[in-house]
């Protein structure tokens, strides 16, 4: 996945960490970092000023992916596709992690058993 168990805590560790996942695209590392920082800033502003809390950290990552896709058009012609590819890769990995880390989904037969449990009370 994304190696979140060894997440970076400095800018230099970020560059080493991102190089492990996107080697050869050092021109867009700063764009990715900017997208993450901007998404965190917006989430903080929404929480502070609008009292809208984030439900999960995945919201920040999906917001960063949207920024990356939008900003891809501002890149050099050779880097547009790489930026879009990086955003898609991040989005796909986060979707997989959301399925793994999210709350367990209830099955249809769980709802049918609820009525019987409440009748016992």
From TrEMBL:
Keyword annotations from UniProtKB, A to Z: Membrane, Transmembrane, Transmembrane helix
Transmembrane segments: 20-43
Name of this chain's protein: Uncharacterized protein
Species assigned in the record: Hordeum vulgare subsp. vulgare
